[in-house]
Amino acid sequence: MKSLFTNIMKGFEGYAIGKILKYLNDPGIISFAGGLPSSDVFPLDLIQKAAVKSLKEDWDRVLQYTPIPGEKELMQSIIEYLKKDNIHIEPENIMITTSGQHGLDLVGRLFLEPRDIIVIDLPTFGGALAAFEMEDAEYIAKDIEEDGSDVKGMETEIENFITKGKKPKFIYVVPDFQNPSGITISLEKRLALLSLSKKYGIPLVEDSPYRELRYRGSHLPSIYSLDKNQGNVIGIYTFSKILCPGIRVGFNIGPHEVIKKFSFIKGANILNTPKLNQDICTAFLREYDLDAHFKRSIEYYSEKLNFFLGAIEENFPEDMGVEWTNPEGGLFLWIALPEEINTSELFYKAIEEKVAFVPGDVFYPKGFRRYNTMRINFSYPTKEQIVEGVRRLSSVLKKYKAKKKK
Ligand SMILES: Cc1ncc(COP(=O)(O)O)c(C=O)c1O
How remote is the CA of residue 362 from the centroid of ligand 1, in Å? Predict the structure, then answer.
């Protein structure tokens, strides 16, 4: 049957992280691989109560098909919630998605013809690359700098492509504590990205799953809010990292003409997002003490981050040539190893020693791959696992280097 598959699907090998996860079934493995928020901060009580209430009081609607764009109560609660982030939108500017990954898929489907160009940071979120690869995307991809996107480099390439008659379809960024690098885009560069978007008429897709999880430094305005509803930005949000990933609820915001089309596409692919899950999110936004919840999550994660950084410092002395980011928030840090280290190879050695990470190459599109980096998730493992896991990681690296030298 394979010969009948579309050309894109013949070459498509799935989401690279998904393939890694199958190696992690052994409970002895200490994993720094998944992008998992910690179940220690899930508001289980609230979720249980909201689910029971919804099934009791609204069971007939919960068990039925519901509107494609989402439940009115949830959309209204989100509109209120976004006001504190200086985002002021109307119901026509929002659609509920079945999580952030779905939100990205909709963007790809709406804008991309095969071999259309997207402007991205290098590295960038692998799930976004997977969604866009399904549309056979090509890239203007520039190395991310300490303060975010290389906006000047992007502009030069955009101009080159426009001269060749190929205008990029959108710019994709994760401004807050980017997955995978942990880097935050500075205010100056947020404004520069917005100017770039306006100057060339290329929409900016702002993916914001980690925005609430800031552990230090000051809060920066979202690019969506900086645009002041002028219609240049599409926001992708999810409840996965602020509530829990299992309920699979998120939302996209943007100009009405875009949201309307998203909803047509959603009708043709998944139809509605389960109402039960949406009701849980509504209860989270309306009934829960969000400030206390975020405070708790921030304290919990920042302690883990500091602990992790301490463990790396201890186990990776300077002469090992290892560098790492020190993120201001989010769930990830990014480790760069000497050029000669291939982390895709190292991954299998690490599995033998029962420790796992995500090899960095999955965060680079085809044609731009780099092999000497790794993504570390510090939020899920316990402190004991962090101590032991980082020790194992350092020992694997030393052995690998020694073998390479022979
Ligand atoms: C930057 C980014 N965007 C989108 C997503 C997808 O989120 P979800 O789990 O809600 O599909 C993730 C998940 O890790 C992410 O890191």
Answer: 15
Residues 311-346 pLDDT 10s: 999 999 888 899 999 999 999 999 999 998 999 999
Decide if 83 contacts 68 (C-beta within 8 A).
Answer: no
Beta bridge mates, 145:
148
In sequence order, the 6+-apart residues with CB closer than 8 A to the CB of 394 are 315, 316, 320
Q: 207: Cβ below 6 Å to ligand 1?
A: yes
Asked if residue 125 has its Cβ within 6 Å of ligand 1, the reply is: yes
User: Domains of the chain: which residue ranges?
Assistant: 2-42+292-405, 44-289
Query: Which tens digits make up the pLDDT trace of 370-384?
Result: 899 999 999 989 999
User: What DSSP element (H or E) covers 18?
Assistant: helix 16-21
**Residue 312 Cα, ligand 1 centroid: separation in angstroms?**
26
Please give the order of strands across the beta sheet that includes 117-122: 94-97, 250-253, 233-238, 204-207, 170-173, 117-122, 138-143
Residue 57 CA to ligand 1 centre (angstroms): 32
Ligand 1 mean position to 38 CA, how many Å? 15
Domain 2-42+292-405 and domain 44-289, same fold? Reply is: no
Q: Does the C-beta of 77 come closer than 6 Å to ligand 1?
A: no
Strands (E), 270-396: 323-324, 332-336, 355-356, 358-359, 373-377
Yes or no: is domain 2-42+292-405 CATH 3.40.50.2300? Answer: no
CATH architecture, range 44-289? 3-Layer(aba) Sandwich (3.40)
In this predicted structure, what is the pLDDT of residue 159?
Answer: 98
